[in-house]
């Protein structure tokens, strides 16, 4: 069977999308876990500030989530736009 | 010179067996080495408890070994089975079974070593808690094995299902993708579950009165930590059991392979991260038992956020299977 150029490009876009989201999920996953672990520690030490600590943890996690969102955006671009 | 299908099946089975056992040996060896290191440190701290610590080390190592024994079983099956295939799809299925089990054993092996090491350290610190520490370690290590059992199940399905009626393209890519999804997907949850159990053993040794909440929160945390591996298993089942239209072009096949890679690799980070989050939770439940509610709630919120990238990977994987 003859494989055409557009077919190869499309295949590469699919593979790229999968790898982009897959690899991009590693960092945020681990990083957000570390943030949550330290937040649990902080609540254990100072339970009165639970609200403040939860808020701080969520803001920090939202920032470290950003690279995961970039990966998602690139994956969706590769799938549907490019 | 042309080769027949039987030759290719043999090639796939032998390379699959090599990968299954080679990759499958990594995790258990690292985990058991960690356990032995902790046991040595523990014995030097408290030589009177040598017998108990030594026993606990061996029990813990035996559990950590099970993941690589699964890999050995799959490698043996691949080496000595007679695959009578009529379709090239079986070549992919056999190779994917080896890949799934090889990658799938890494996480559980490494992970089970952590609670065993922490139990040894704990026995040196609190010899009186030896029984509870051993129980907790056994529960924790057993839960760590579940991701490798998922990989084993996938490998068995790939080995013993008959795919010969399916179109070769794109089924070959779907089966390889299924192997990657459940194999790579098991790494993170295995390691993460181990980190949780490690910190619960450490917490029980530090604060023996908190043993009940610590074990409960450990189980909760480990259960949530398994979810990325379950997502990987889900995608691999979809890839194995869905029937695909035959195609002559490359792109649909690559979409299925990429789907498996996406959820497989994407599950590694959230699995480890949720384990770290939950380990902070159990550690501080042991130290501050009065606030178990607050700590558990925050732990679950943190784990849910860490799960999000695994969900993104799942979305992309499902889009690759069903939409494009």
Largest sheet of chain B: none
Outline the low-pLDDT stretches of chain B. Answer: none
Compute the separation of the termini of chain B in Å.
37 Å
Estimate the global geometry of chain A from the Cα principal axes: rod-shaped
Order of helices and strands of chain B: HHHHHHHHHHH
Question: And the CATH topology of chain B?
Answer: Four Helix Bundle (Hemerythrin (Met), subunit A)
Mean of all residue-level pLDDT scores of chain A:
93
Q: Oligomerization state of this entry?
A: heterodimer
Summarize the SSE layout with pairings.
The complex is a heterodimer of chains A (82) and B (324).
Chain A (H helix, E strand, L loop, with lengths): L4 H20 L1 H20 L4 H31 L2
Helix pairs in contact in A: 1-3, 2-3
Chain B lengths: L4 H41 L4 H31 L8 H37 L4 H15 L1 H15 L7 H39 L4 H15 L1 H15 L8 H17 L1 H20 L4 H31 L2
Helix pairs in contact in B: 1-2, 1-3, 2-3, 2-4, 2-5, 3-4, 3-5, 3-6, 4-6, 4-7, 5-6, 5-8, 6-7, 6-8, 6-9, 6-10, 7-10, 7-11, 8-9, 8-11, 9-11, 10-11
Describe the model.
The complex is a heterodimer of chains A (82) and B (324). With 82 residues, chain A is mainly alpha-helical. Chain A has a domain of 51 residues: F1F0 ATP synthase subunit C (F1FO ATP Synthase, Up-down Bundle), CATH 1.20.20. Chain A contains three helices and no strands. In chain A, helix 1 packs antiparallel against helix 3 and helix 2 runs antiparallel to helix 3. Chain A is rod-shaped, with a radius of gyration of 19 Å. Chain A starts with a helix and ends with a helix. Chain B has 324 residues and is mainly α. Chain B has one domain: lithium bound rotor ring of v- atpase (Four Helix Bundle (Hemerythrin (Met), subunit A), Up-down Bundle). In chain B, 85% of the residues lie in helices and 0% in strands. In chain B, helix 6 packs antiparallel against helix 7 and helix 9 runs antiparallel to helix 11. The longest helix of chain B has 41 residues. Chain B starts with a helix and ends with a helix. The model of chain B has no long low-confidence stretch (mean pLDDT 94).
